[in-house]
Amino acid sequence: MDDSMLEEFKLEAFELLEESEESLLSLETNGDFEQCYNSIFRCFHSLKGGAGMFGLEELQGFMHKVENLIDKKRDKELFDEKLISFLLNTMDQVKSYLEGGSYNFVFEYDESEKAEEAHEENIIKFQEKKEHYKEQIQYDGLIYIVDDEKDMLELLQMTFEEETNLKVETFNDPELALEAFKNKNPDLVLTDLSMPEMSGVELIRELSAINQLVPVIVLSGFVTKESCMDALRFGASGILEKPCDMQLLLDQSNHAIRRYQSFKLLNKSIDLLTYQFEEFDSFLGNKGDQVRKQFRSELKNILKRKKELYKKSA
């Protein structure tokens, strides 16, 4: 496996950890224990499989211990605050490992008084996160809007907030949008073309270098054939001229977001399937060689096709 696939695994791992943490936070808010438990178990099980595939033995062994512990705690009554604090600590350890590449994992789940102080500290953190989680609105996606005209930013923000369930973040400076993009990729970027300091085309080029898959729609009052060609060449998925039909803008935006989110979901499914192969291969042992060969062949074809799609979208 090449370095790019390892980086993809790490990105997927962070997403799985975030989803798992969210499930922990929602345990006491929606009452659906089974769904939350399955999300948490799936996270650690998938990380174990992916770690095995990439030869990350320390992570694989640690995840195996955590998975076995969670498997013994399927009863809602056993999923107490001490277990939750342990899992939060586990997630922090895994994140540190993925960020640094080397880490001494500590499996510190026990019921002794010695561990009580650490448990209490994690429980306080958990309660704080849980209160913050209750206040958050569950959005259908995140959109960045970039324009140097304040009035236009306010109009677009008001339109999207009233007509959609998207979280909107606005930027009157493309440099600020670029910095935000480095830390958190949105589901759509809507940008002007003619701006001081950095043009819309330059912004699109920089965004594409970070994540070429995030859709970008250009909305500008100074659209020329040359600017259109440049924007499309660097990855713009749509171009609209100001003033535009707001319903048309909403429709194009929703379509681009749905397509991007569908691609991310498909991509995650492929990666999870890849990570699970390590478990499947071990399960077969010396039996089912034909099944293993067929599965491995299909998996290679899927990964090959995935790389081809990435190249075509570049």
Describe the structure.
The structure is a single chain. The protein is of the alpha/beta class and 314 residues long. It folds into two domains: 3-135, Four Helix Bundle (Hemerythrin (Met), subunit A); 137-314, Response regulator (Rossmann fold), CATH 3.40.50.2300. Helices cover 68% and strands 8% of the residues. A five-stranded parallel beta sheet has the order 2-1-3-4-5, with helices on both faces. Helix 9 links the parallel strand 4 and strand 5 (238-241). Helix 4 packs across helix 5 (116-135) and helix 7 (174-183) runs parallel beside helix 8 (200-210). The longest helix is centred in the last third of the chain and has 39 residues, at 246-284. The protein is elongated. Mean pLDDT is 79; it is low at 111-116.
Question: What structural keywords apply?
Answer:
single chain; elongated; Rossmann fold; Four Helix Bundle (Hemerythrin (Met), subunit A); 68% helix; five-stranded parallel beta sheet
Chain-wise SSE layout:
Blueprint: H1 3-30, H2 33-53, H3 57-71, H4 81-100, H5 116-135, E1 141-146, H6 150-163, E2 166-171, H7 174-183, E3 188-191, H8 200-210, E4 216-220, H9 225-233, E5 238-241, H10 246-284, H11 289-313
Helix pairs in contact: 1-2, 1-4, 1-5, 2-3, 2-10, 4-5, 7-8, 10-11
